[in-house]
Amino acid sequence: MKEEHGFTLVEMAAVLLIISVLLLLLVPSLTEGKSRADQVSCEGSVRIVESEINLHYAEHKSYPATLEVIKRASSTDPLVYSCQSSEYTYSPLDGSLIKR
């Protein structure tokens, strides 16, 4: 009697099926985690910009006229701050950033 070592086609198919099911469960959670991390990073950046606006107010007793003064304006609009895929509009009257 000849002994053969290895896996049968059915065993290989079962292993591939299990791996594919695990990947289907794992991939969506990874992409959600990345988008959440981007959002948290953006919120931190907005807080930093707000702090810079407040520092400008403390030094000059007025809010900056545009975000270009503190070198944080978007490339297209001096009253817009862009972060990841979000944009914030700057109000020079009260120094606030409002999400669009």
Automatic annotation (TrEMBL):
<protein>
    <submittedName>
        <fullName>Prepilin-type N-terminal cleavage/methylation domain-containing protein</fullName>
    </submittedName>
</protein>
<keyword id="KW-1133">Transmembrane helix</keyword>
<keyword id="KW-0812">Transmembrane</keyword>
<keyword id="KW-0472">Membrane</keyword>
<dbReference type="InterPro" id="IPR045584">
    <property type="entry name" value="Pilin-like"/>
</dbReference>
<dbReference type="Pfam" id="PF07963">
    <property type="entry name" value="N_methyl"/>
</dbReference>
<keyword id="KW-0178">Competence</keyword>
<dbReference type="InterPro" id="IPR012902">
    <property type="entry name" value="N_methyl_site"/>
</dbReference>
<feature type="transmembrane region" description="Helical">
    <location>
        <begin position="6"/>
        <end position="27"/>
    </location>
</feature>
